[in-house]
Amino acid sequence: MSDTTLTGARVALVGNPNSGKTALFNALTGSRQKVANYAGVTVERKEGQLVTPAGRTLSILDLPGTYSLRARSPDEVVTRDAVLGKLVGERAPDVVVAVADATNLRLVLRLILELKAVGRPMVLALNMYDIAQRQGLRIDLEGLARELGCPIVTTVATRKRGIEDLIAQVDAIAASGALGADSAWREPGAGEIREAHREAQRILKAHVRPPERPDTFTGKVDSVLLHPVAGLAILLALLFVMFQAVFTWAKPVQDLIDAGFHLLGVFIALHLPAGIITSFVTDGLISGVGSVLVFLPQILVLFLFIILLEDFGYMARAAFLMDRIMGGAGLHGRAFIPLLSSFACAIPGIMATRVIDNKRDRLTTILVAPLMTCSARIPVYTLIISAFIPNRQVLGVLSLPGLVMFSLYAAGIVSALGVSFITRRLFWRGAVEPFLMELPTYKAPDALNVARSVALRGKIFIKRAGTIILPMMIAVWFLSSFPGAPAGATDPAINYSLAGRIGHFIQPALQPIGFNWQMTVALIPGFAAREVAVAALGTVYAIGNADASPGTLATTLAHHWSIATGLSFLAWYVFAPQCASTFGVVKRETNSWFWPIVMLVYMTSLAYAAAFVVYHTAAAFGLG
Amino acid sequence: MHAMPAEPVTADAVPLAGAAPVRLSAARPGDRGVIVDVRAESGSAGHGVGVHELQRRLLEFGFVEGAEVEVLHEGAIRRDPIAVRVDDMRIALRRRDAAEIWVQLDPR
Questions:
Q1: Smallest Cα–Cα separation from A340: which of A407, A414, A410, A243?
Q2: Chain B residues touching A434 at Cβ < 8 A
């Protein structure tokens, strides 16, 4: 390959988790990044571009962090296949940049030895070099470079130090047209791993002098945060603050977005002639996009917390504290973060399960994630609670509506643990995965990197809203609008539509749980997204603009439904699979229709059973 | 935090003096010592991955013969999982997985 014409080069970043790889990726590529998925799997593919001073375009691939090329999770499989050039539709990288935390070289040296066997031209970036220097860690860079047979660059990604040097080294390798050797890598057995450790140990001893002022901060913080009692108390307090923030900080912005889309709808309705097109634009497009985007602030706040805690190094501690508690229900400690995300929305939660190594643990987590009370249930809960639960004090301090809200959340969590427990017993008896996790040293999160990661989450969510959720909303709009009401009709138009007919058709099946036909009809559009059921109820009860005046709708419902029916509807919503996009994501994530169907069946059964019990219990108490 | 560990010690090179090696799963916070063996026994059956895979994973996380370990913390329920310092890293693992690791404890 002659490089006088400066052909572009493909560069892959490989390293242990917590090595600052993503910060380095950000420092290299800035905002010229794009996120997609690898073909066939939902592992995020992060790629960015940069142009070297010499004029060469480098495309940088940020590969998922790993300890070994012996891949265990879907994430790690991608890293291995990308490095080996086995990924469908992707060539092997021209240059591999091994990213190492300079203060924690032991394990990464073994990974570097594996990468050497792969034979791609390599540069080693010793990241967080400032911390190493502060600790008085001495690294003989020349000797180490000679030993490893690759150039070494010291970097401080968060301060953008050493980045030019790194680019220059990569450029030089690309310019030399080095092709690299054929891969001699194969999966190491126990003996070879021991051998590699000895080799890494020898290299460390020869070229690295241990720190004069080692980090004692992490140990001190851990003695509090990992304390069996204090640690759990702090975790609970953190979760409490986080939920408060998710619901209170996001509220004003959500109201603004809601009002904005509402105004936009009104504006368009005023300026377009009434008719099917206007209905499509206002009821289909605008309220569709609006009903999804309204969750963006909550998702951003949630991810702000998650990313801050992750970057600080706390998430591994949370998994440590929760492992046994969740393990009792057959869940892996690492399922904690995905399940936490599911409180905002099951979709990012399900996508976050890719950090779980094992397929069974991952599937269990995916199956129960939608039982966590996502924020789309909140509008439904608040509507029904305000209609049927009297606002009075219990035990002097607690408000009854608040108590009901809390029990709905608790019902979600308890049922998730129960389902996971049963899944374990039913499908995967006995097999328990090992739980092995590095507890990284604590580090102050870097504001810019955090902002960038949060923005990225937001971007991914909006993109998904556009590609999965919007089409669903349009389909539901179509079902609810066609065919239109005949001339002179007195009932609301939705009653004559396909959705109305489906609602009437399945109503007998839902009769035993106390649902009337209006509710059944509202469930159909509610399948697009849970909160749409509120608007749909407004439509069937012919209340214009139900979202803006929930008070009116609540009064109407209180008038039309018995308390037993209201409670039954709440119980239904705790479990019901009322979210088409979740199934889309589960299908993509598991690469089969089997699991989404399992999920649909079990959630519907649970919802039906719960609503049945609640309805008949309440009716027996004379609330029917 | 500590000095570099001494030359790797293999199981047969362990000095005979002192108590017999114990499983890391039996260690309590404050216990420290040197790993003398990482086995692939079915001591705790029912690993989803099989004992040889478990052994490889332990080795990959730095639980190798000769590494210095110290139990730092343990969980609230049944003292599980445990947080262990392995040379200069901290690793969390469950006691059942730690059962494959044999440690020559330092006298306390």
A1: A243
A2: 47-49, 54, 57, 93-94, 97
Using one digit for the tens of pLDDT, what is the confidence trace for A489-505? Answer: 667 677 788 888 888 89
**Contact by Cβ (8 Å): A174, A59:** no
Q: Structure tokens of A22?
A: 């993503």
Q: Is residue B31 part of a domain?
A: yes
The alpha carbon of residue A107 is apart from the nearest alpha carbon of chain B, in Å, by 7
Residue B36, domain CATH: 2.30.30.90
Query: Which of A67, A217, A221, A226 best tests the B interface by mutation, with the highest count of B CBs <10 A?
Result: A226
**Which domains does chain A carry?**
9-209 (3.40.50.300), 461-620 (no CATH)
* Lowest mean per-residue pLDDT among A88-92, A419-423, A439-443, B69-73: A88-92
**Is B6 domain-assigned?**
no
Asked whether the beta carbons of residue B48 and residue A358 sit closer than 8 angstroms, the reply is yes
**B48–A333: do the CB atoms touch at under 8 Å?**
no
For residue B17, tell me if it sits in a domain. Answer: no
ipTM over 0.85: no
Q: Nearest-CA distance from A252 to chain B in Å?
A: 39
- A18, A186, A213, A320: best to mutate for the B interface, most B CBs within 10 A: A320
Check pLDDT > 90 for residue B93.
yes
Q: What is the pLDDT of residue B8?
A: 47
**To the nearest 10°, the Cα dihedral for A148, A150, A151, A156?**
-70
What's the structural domain count of chain B? 1
CA A415 vs CA A368, A379, A408, A568: distances in Å: 8, 21, 11, 17
Chain B interface test: which of A359, A432, A441 (most B C-beta within 10 Å):
A432
Amino acid identity of A416?
Answer: A
Residue A533: the pLDDT is: 79
Average pLDDT, chain A: 85
Q: How confident is the model at residue A585 (pLDDT cuts 50, 70, 90)?
A: confident
A107 contacts in B (CB within 8 Å)? Answer: 60-62, 89
- pLDDT score of B42: 65
DSSP SS3 for A572: helix
Long-range CB pairs of A257-264 (<8 Å, 24+ gap) are: A257/A290, A257/A293, A257/A294, A257/A296, A257/A297, A258/A290, A258/A294, A258/A547, A260/A290, A261/A286, A261/A287, A261/A289, A261/A290, A261/A293, A261/A294, A262/A290, A262/A545, A262/A547, A262/A548, A264/A290
- Looking at the domain assignment, is residue B12 inside a domain? no
- Radius of gyration for chain B, computed over Cα atoms and rounded to the nearest angstrom: 13
Structural domain range at position B78: 22-105
Q: Strand pairing partners for A364?
A: none
